[in-house]
User: Fold this.
Amino acid sequence: MQQRPEWIPDGVDLEKPSAARCYDFYLGGAYNFEVDRELGRKALQVVPHLKEIAVNNRAFLRRAVRYCLDQGIRQFLDIGSGIPTAGNVHEIVHSVDPEARVVYVDNEPVAVAHSRSILEGVEGASIVQADLLDVAGVLDAPETRRMLDFSEPIAIMMVALVHFVPDSSKPREVIRHYYEHLPVGSHIGFSHVTGDHHREGVEGLVKLYENSINPVTLRTRDEVAELISDFQLVEPGVVYVPDWRPDTQEDVWEHPERSIVYGAVGRKV
Ligand SMILES: C[S@@+](CC[C@H](N)C(=O)[O-])C[C@H]1O[C@@H](n2cnc3c(N)ncnc32)[C@H](O)[C@@H]1O
Assistant:
């Protein structure tokens, strides 16, 4: 067994890969363990452009955040925020308005510990350790209440998150609970893995993640649309992420379905 590095928080299972740490590996980060890299390497065998997929999903997150900023939103609740990496939500948001507020939420202890350390001394951003499924645990956390004003629009981000929620946990109802607590004018930024194309590679990924902390549930485009159907989708609706309002040449993919991730932004009207 590898030696336990000092920065690892108590309670972390070093023997099981986690989605947060594998994703950090795809993005070239340093907050992953051998067990995550092992899964990551196998995943790259079944979907060789997985690193590009992760980078592209981050680019979608940035465009969705900027869209919400353009709508005048100054409060962000980023659930399943992951291990901080280049272009974090608070960096984008604070570059536009230093007074804006960002609350990150994740249930993975490494993601939370690293977020806590980079947010130390940062005004207007904090991290809550909670589970998406525990709506009250997220919305009533003292940090959430201190930072966010629920009488003003909020952008809730669930990016590359809900495919980790099985149907048995009723994700449609969970998202509705969040929707009900948000004021009119709030937005959701959403992305989700699908097997609508490249079925074989994507199913290979699902199989690999079966033994991780975060098994994956694939959903079709219609199922993704249904999950967020309380919100009014802004153009272009639910599309492969490269097609969601690309703003640089790098965002545009000749075959957007290779991204294997649908993205959308919706508004509460
Ligand atoms: C693939 S990462 C996405 C990170 C970031 N949102 C992005 O798109 O760049 C998914 C994150 O969701 C977190 N996660 C998975 N299930 C969760 C749950 N039930 N509650 C909170 N976070 C969860 C994982 O720990 C991981 O950090």
